[in-house]
Amino acid sequence: MNPTIQPSTTPLHPAATQPATALRDFYHLGALPTQTVQLLVQRAAELRAGAAPHQFPGRALGLLFLNPSLRTSASFQRAAARLQLELVQLSGDGVWGLETATGTVMDGAAAEHVREAAAVLGRYVDVLAVRAFPAGKSLNDDLRDPLMNAFRNHAGVPLINMESARWHPCQALADWSTLEQHQIPTRGRLVLSWAWHPKALPHAVPNSTLCMAAQRGMDVTVLHPPGYALHPSVMAEAAQLAQASGGRVSSSEDRERALAGTEVVYAKSWGSLDCWGDAAAESAQRAHLRDWCVQPDWLQGSARFMHCLPLRRNVVAADAVLDGPASLLLDQAENRLHAQTALLEEILS
Ligand code: CP
Predict the structure, then answer these.
(1) Nearest in space to 309 (alpha carbons), one of 174, 159, 135
(2) What are phi and psi of 182, to 5 degrees?
């Protein structure tokens, strides 16, 4: 099976085909004009080559992590230092539990409504960056991305999505930079492959990887075992981005056919839409799928290996892949710093 995904007939993000405009909301890369993304990638390359970052003394960046992080946290801290930004840093275990529902009687666990939390932080900083993973209980709730959208609506300052229920645009921007750095052709092939993992993981990275590659103009195949398709709305949006860029989007359950001739294998695990919120059903469904661990023979010719990290060795990919010449992992992680420095420059300028 290798169906080509048809784009939805309703334009979801017509911005992708428009000229670059001022950047005030970095929620989803595919919602930005492609020209804006290309300018950010170009600036990230200049910064990687040693260009001096702009300086913003007296201005402040807020970082709110409601979930763990290594790369996103460290790279934003370093980017802020390079731009002479003051930092306000908060983590999930240090803030009040947040309510997102409108009109609710707050007599449960949450002590603060996101409306106040977002607006208060917006009084302290010039740009606010938030990480808020999906709750993982109700698929419909998570598809609405309630926490991130509440911060976008109520912060009153530009908001950067540092990974939400639906998207990880900072990772996608860095990955686009890495593809350029390694001269992966714009019309090249990228296979986004599902990988086994002991837990059901969120969809933000695969969603953003798919849309990023489609927006760049690549021929993207989502390779997965039965039961692990990405959400139809994301596939339709990616197809629409591909239509605008001259790329192509398809899906496949045939590993051998999908991997033949591809330039990039981007591995990631994600949970089944059929088992959302049901850990026992998810475990049973994936129990026989442990061979979805990237091996050296998945990478044919000069194919490169990508993953956003963190990654479980010999679960998602074999040591020989991670430690071999095909791996772009560390460049991907380094490009988080350059891409986010470019992003902050653009938002604050
Ligand atoms: N790739 C990524 O976002 O890494 P962290 O979760 O460690 O920030």
Answers:
(1) 174
(2) -100, 15
Output b/e per residue, 77-116; b: 16+ Cβ within 10 A.
bebbebbebeeeeeeeeeeeebbbeeeeeeeeeeeebbbe
Most ligand 1 atoms within 8 A of CB, residue of 64, 70, 170, 269 to mutate: 70
CA 156 vs CA 32, 56, 115, 173: distances in Å: 20, 19, 11, 24
CB of 171 closer than 6 angstroms to any ligand 1 atom: yes
Tokens 């709110």 found at = 64
Ligand 1: does its nearest atom lie under 6 Å from the Cβ of 72? yes
Q: pLDDT: is 225 or 10 the higher one?
A: 225
Q: Do domains 21-167+336-348 and 170-333 have the same CATH topology?
A: yes
**CA dist., res. 166 & res. 132, Å (int):** 10
The total of other beta-carbon atoms located within 10 Å of residue 277's CB is: 16
CA of 244 to the centre of ligand 1 (A): 29
Share of the chain above pLDDT 70, in %: 94
- What is the value of pTM for the model shown? 0.95
Question: How long is the chain?
Answer: 349
| CATH dotted code for 170-333 | 3.40.50.1370
Q: Among residues of the chain, what percentage have pLDDT more than 90?
A: 93
Could you please state the CATH topology (level 3) that the domain comprising 21-167+336-348 is classified under.
Rossmann fold (3.40.50)
Give residue-wise pLDDT tens across range 178-192: 999 999 999 999 999
Q: Residue 7 pLDDT > 60, yes or no?
A: no
- Owner of token pair 């593809």: 179
Q: In the sheet where 159-161 sits, what is the strand order?
A: 25-26, 159-161, 127-131, 60-65, 86-91
Question: Cis peptide leading into 310, omega within 30 of 0?
Answer: yes
